[in-house]
Write a structure and sequence with these properties.
Oligomer: heterodimer
Number of domains of chain B: 1
Low-confidence stretches of chain A: none
Helix content of chain A: over 70%
Low-confidence stretches of chain B: none
Mean pLDDT of chain A: 92
Order of helices and strands of chain A: HHHEEHHHHHHHH
Distance between the termini of chain B: 28 Å
Number of helices of chain A: 11
Shape of chain B: elongated
Radius of gyration of chain B: 19 Å
Distance between the termini of chain A: 36 Å
Structural class of chain B: mainly alpha
Number of helices of chain B: 10
Mean pLDDT of chain B: 92
Largest sheet of chain B: none
Number of strands of chain B: 0
Largest sheet of chain A: 2 strands, antiparallel
Radius of gyration of chain A: 20 Å
Strand content of chain A: under 5%
């Protein structure tokens, strides 16, 4: 590919290979710049809110040396809070991107270019994953100022961080494509995403739940994300770490297929 | 030409009703959303922290937390309920309809503040009713419950009016929320007894208006508090007056509202 064909060159259509790398990169960078442009809102605000949660739970314990299986409660809580804010921000990034574009009518600028369904999914979900992981890193670094955070297994930690961000980015895409108004996506956030990210073991070991609820928790993919991510820090998990690897990967493959299908058929995107 | 008396009651009522209808139109977000997250907070605290000693002797964890969670939702709703409509009207260019109406700054600010505060009280009442299903909430003094809820709602509605006027972009608004409203509302003793904290940080909480509103509000339920409700009221009323004066002055000058 010479310089002329890259720049358009005025010599006929630009040749695109099997993957439209330039288009994919452009879409991805658009999604990243979208949140970096308002980084106080998208990075610093979640960090401060996460620190506030940490402070509240630490203070609510009244300094009593509460532990979960020999781990100080604050060290148990910190990974849960990081994962919670990572998930919420990944979801917010992709869902708001699609809903705003749909409501304002500029979704066509994303649908018209020569980008396949797979490239659209990858580009937009990539932006959501980037924001989630960045927010997670910022929140984790801020917490490490106050807490002696240690990392037990960096690979498991990274695996669950990336898969968690991807799962919520894909859910955000599904929610955003399905929603027709801001109310719809706000309802999904309020009644699905926030409760699940709150109640899936962020704040407590599920061993504290009644037996029936513990059983149900094992069907909740968010539980495996939080549990596995926490294992990466403290080396202790409620469920099986190996099952966790498989569950989050399986869920992500399924969600990817759904999003791909939505873009391919133009569900609620093309009239 | 229609004549107005000293006070344009019809104008204030119209603006009040518009804000109330706006609030009710989005009841899913403005009432059901906070109700859902409040119940979640209660459940999380109960599961994560329950089973220990009572935070205050004779008051269970849930009885202690419920007023705190309600107060948090109330302050947050009042702030958003005032800031979002003003800011939204401003960036959408609709604020001209209000600036052009034959209403004084006091009437406009009053309508926005009272509507946001009363909307927040609706949300707070719904949450209270839902919590009463799960928690055995005593009622010691109804006047204190209503009075301190109203004071907190007015205070945060006025803060919302000021932020709505000053914000130029959405991220200004969310910065005010994340760096000002959340810290003030959350680090107030809503979720832990301030008396148990070390002495050197206690002054920080005692300077927080939400701490005082909460002391009075919780007193209304349990009949116990760290300070007398009169002290709490003496702290809150001047703050409401100051914020009210600032909001009135900003609107009267047309700060960031008129070109």
């Amino acid at each position: 590919m010479d310089a002329h064909s890259l720049s358009g060159g005025g010599r006929g259509p630009r040749a695109i290979g099997a993957v439209n790398w330039r288009g994919l990169w452009t879409l991805y960078m658009k999604e990243v710049r979208r949140f970096l442009n308002v980084f106080t809102q998208t990075l610093l605000a979640p960090m401060v809110t996460t620190l506030l949660f940490l402070a509240i739970f630490a203070l609510a314990l009244g300094g009593a040396g509460r532990e979960v299986d020999g781990v100080p409660y604050t060290l148990f809580l910190a990974p849960g809070l990081i994962m919670m804010t990572l998930m919420q921000n990944s979801f917010a990034n992709t869902s708001s991107s699609i809903v705003i574009a749909k409501v304002q009518g500029n979704i066509v600028d994303v649908l018209m270019p020569p980008l396949s369904a797979g490239e659209l999914t990858l580009g937009i979900a990539g932006g959501g994953v980037t924001r989630g992981v960045l927010v997670g890193c910022v929140a984790g670094l801020a917490m490490s100022i106050f807490l002696p955070i240690r990392i037990h297994d960096p690979l498991t930690l990274a695996y669950h961080a990336v898969n968690g961000a991807l799962m919520l980015s894909l859910l955000g895409l599904i929610g955003g494509i399905w929603a027709e108004k801001f109310d719809h996506i706000a309802a999904v956030t309020n009644f699905v995403i926030t409760p699940f990210s709150f109640l899936s073991g962020t704040f407590y070991s599920i061993e504290r739940l009644p037996a029936d609820w513990q059983f149900i928790a094992h069907f909740n993919p968010f539980f495996y994300l939080i549990d596995g991510f926490r294992y990466g820090f403290i080396g202790r998990a409620d469920g099986s770490v190996l099952v966790g690897y498989a569950v989050v990967l399986g869920v992500n493959v399924a969600l990817w297929a759904v999003v791909h299908r939505m873009f391919a058929t133009g569900y609620r995107l093309k009239d | 030409m229609r004549r107005f008396g000293a006070f344009n009651w019809r104008g204030v009522w119209s603006l009040y009703r518009r804000e109330q209808l706006r609030f009710l139109r989005y009841a899913g977000e403005s009432i059901a959303g906070p109700a859902m997250s409040s119940l979640m907070f209660l459940a999380v605290f109960q599961v994560a922290l329950g089973g220990g000693v009572d935070p205050i002797p004779g008051v269970t964890l849930a009885q202690f937390m419920a007023p705190g969670i309600i107060m948090f939702s109330l302050t947050h709703s009042a702030f958003e309920g005032a800031a979002v409509p003003i800011f939204h009207d401003k960036i959408e260019g609709m604020i001209g309809d209000i600036l052009g109406a034959p209403m004084t700054a006091l009437e406009v600010i009053g309508a926005f503040t009272v509507s946001a505060a009363s909307n927040a009280l609706i949300t707070g009442s719904v949450i209270l009713a839902l919590m009463a299903l799960f928690v055995d909430l005593p009622v010691h003094n109804v006047l204190a419950i209503v009075g301190f809820a109203l004071a907190a709602a007015l205070l945060f509605a006025l803060a919302g009016v000021i932020v709505g006027i000053c914000a130029e972009r959405w991220d200004h608004f969310s910065a005010a929320e994340a760096f000002l409203v959340f810290p003030v509302a959350l680090l107030s003793g809503a979720f832990f007894p301030v008396a148990n904290l070390p002495g050197e940080v206690q002054w920080l909480f005692r300077a927080n208006p939400v701490f005082h509103a909460l002391e009075g509000f919780r007193y209304g339920f349990t009949g116990q508090s760290h300070e007398s409700p009169a002290v709490a009221a003496a702290f809150l009323l001047p703050m409401i007056a100051v914020l009210g004066a600032v909001a009135w002055r900003l609107f009267d000058r047309g700060y960031k509202l008129k070109p």
